[in-house]
Every structure is written in structure tokens, then in C-alpha cells.
Please model this.
Amino acid sequence: MPEIRPFRNGDVPDLVRLWNESDLGRGAAHLNSVEVLESATFNRSYFDHRGCLMALDEGKLVGFGLAGPAISPDRSSLDLQRGVICFVVVHPSARRRGIGRALVHRLEQYLRTRGVQTIYAGPHRGADPFGFGLYGGCRPSGFLRSDPAAEPFFLSLGYCPDARYEIKIRDLTTARDPTSARLMTIRRQVMLAIDERPDQPTWWWYEQYGRAEAFRFHLRMRRGGEMIASINAVRLDQYADKWQANAVGLVDLDVSPDYRGKGFGQTLLVEACRELRQQNVGLVELSLPMDNPIGLRAATNAGFVFADSGMAYRLNSSSPHDPGAALWAPERFGHR
Ligand SMILES: CC(C)(COP(=O)(O)OP(=O)(O)OC[C@H]1O[C@@H](n2cnc3c(N)ncnc32)[C@H](O)[C@@H]1OP(=O)(O)O)[C@@H](O)C(=O)NCCC(=O)NCCS
Model:
């Protein structure tokens, strides 16, 4: 069995090679430099080399895994009660030899020693300390279907599905903008505005979007200026090679409660895409939790089509794989 040890600074070039040679799906950026990898992992103030494990076979890096703490619901701090395994990657030439399993068990031990009680696998909203910009396209959305080994692997290790995401795309080079009488009526009432950041950015906003080229679309009433809906946009230049497109991600669609289910979300998406097309953007990607049917319908109505799905898993408290199961009571993970 290969040696497993914590990350060292000198591992970075081998990690880039491993990442690029691991046949990862559409949600993994191809690394042309270390910048995207660093920004998503080592540069984070809470990065802990003990939670970043390297698997070496006769001195050659054949696998790595990374785990870290979750984020508090108000996004002002870390949530050390909950932890997440953000990556487990094994080189194709070394798979099905138990290396992935060994990495996961060591990461679980690491999280337990940090006091973590609930363990997730797959970075996702509220539990995404690492991975932004590197895996998951516009945002970490669990492990993606386009990496088909991830699901049977985590199920075999005692994890159960916890939150599902749908990733939708819109090709701005060919598709025409959807239109309807309702959209035209709403368009007359509202205007699109673009800001650099939300009115009150959280610590987490700076951690994620502050590092990227990000901006925010707002839909406001023309009369009175009332804010109706907003969405964050982030440039995805690191996916240009893989997707063969100049891409932007749209995340955190938020429609004011009084205006939900009335076509305003769809209008914001259509207008944002229109603006992005003017900026020579060819592809827009959107990630939405499956428990947001209104948002998903708004995206479909705005011309977005299914591209992938993501799943976040939770370690089953009764699993024989969970050594700490007897010590804690599992809590429900609330998704917004
Ligand atoms: C998922 C991955 C990490 C598994 O690593 P691995 O070292 O091959 O996994 P293991 O050998 O420890 O497998 C443990 C168990 O998981 C299950 N499993 C692993 N890969 C599987 C696959 N492709 N199909 C079905 N079951 C699988 C099996 O039950 C296996 O036990 P077995 O071999 O005794 O039957 C590896 O396939 C990989 O790197 N994939 C690409 C990266 C990825 O998708 N990572 C998650 C997103 S970052």
C-alpha cells in the first residue's frame, strides 16, 4: 500500500500533473499554472497541511485528498462542528487498489481530531472551504455525475446522498433569447443594474468572489428603484480550454419573497445573458439546488438546459466505516 503523508510545499508541481492526468469530468478546470489550484486551496487562511494528504507509490504521487471545515450559516466564520472532504483523486493507473478508501479514512480521522461531528463529502454551499474555481464550474456543487466513480465510491464507504444540485448551461452563441407576453410586460417595469459586490458582503463573499473576477446583476423597479432580484456572476476563464468557450457562471439567484414565481427570476436571467452576450461571453453556467423548483423553472424558462448534476454526501452515523459515530448525534444540514 502506498505511503500516505501530509502535503509539503514541494508537492505542488506533482499535484498539478496528477490533477491534469486524472481524467476528471467537465467540472474540473484544466490547470495551465498553479494559480487556480493555489487560490482554491493552499492560499486559504485556514488551509492545514495535515488535512491535505498525498498518496505516494515508490515516491510517485498517485493520489491526494483534501478536507476542511464548513462555513457558518451567516457566512461570517468557520463552522468547526462540521467538516467536508473536498477532493479525493487517484491517478487512473492506481485505481481500485484501495488508495481512495485509505485517503478518505485518514481524512475522516483528521476531521475527528479537529472536533468535527458531521462529515460531508463533496464541497457544496455552506460546506465549501476549498475548490471554488477549481472544481464544480461556477460553484462547488458536490461531486459531479460527470465523474462517475465518485458516487459508487462514497456509497461504498458508508456515505449517503444529502443534497443534490443541477448544473444548467446556456449557449449564447446560437440560442435566441426566449420571449413571451409576460416577459415583455416585466421588462417594461424593471431595469438591470450591475454592481461590483453585494451591499453588505460577508467574509465568505470576499473569500470566494473577492479572489475572482466577479460582479453582481440586480433587477430593480424602474419606478421607485425597489430591488426585485439579484445574482452573482463570476468569470470562468480557467475553463476556456475544457469548454472551448468564454464562460461566466451565475450563482446565488435571489428573488425577493413577494416577487417569487412571477417571472422576475426568468427576466433577470434573460437580461443578464443579454448583457453577457454584449461582453462576448459565449457560455453561461448556473448551479441550483434541486430543492429550489422555482429557481430551476426560471432557469429552464430562460433557455438554460441540463449539463450535469452534483451530489453532496453525508457520512452515515450508523456506518461501520464511521469510527466516531458512537460519540455524536447527527444533525440535519440546512441548505438555503
Ligand atoms: C473515486 C476515486 C477517488 C476512487 O479511488 P480508488 O483508489 O480507485 O478507490 P478504492 O480502490 O479505494 O475503492 C474503494 C471502493 O469504492 C468502490 N469504487 C471505487 N471506484 C469505483 C468505480 N469506478 N465503480 C464502482 N465502484 C467503485 C468499490 O466498492 C471499491 O471497493 P472494491 O474495489 O473492493 O470493490 C477514483 O476513481 C478517482 O480518482 N476518480 C476521479 C476523481 C473523482 O471522481 N473524485 C471525486 C471528485 S474530486
Observations:
- The chain has nine helices and 13 strands.
- The CA atoms of residues 164 and 311 lie 5 Å apart.
- Residues 322-336 have pLDDT under 50 and may be disordered.
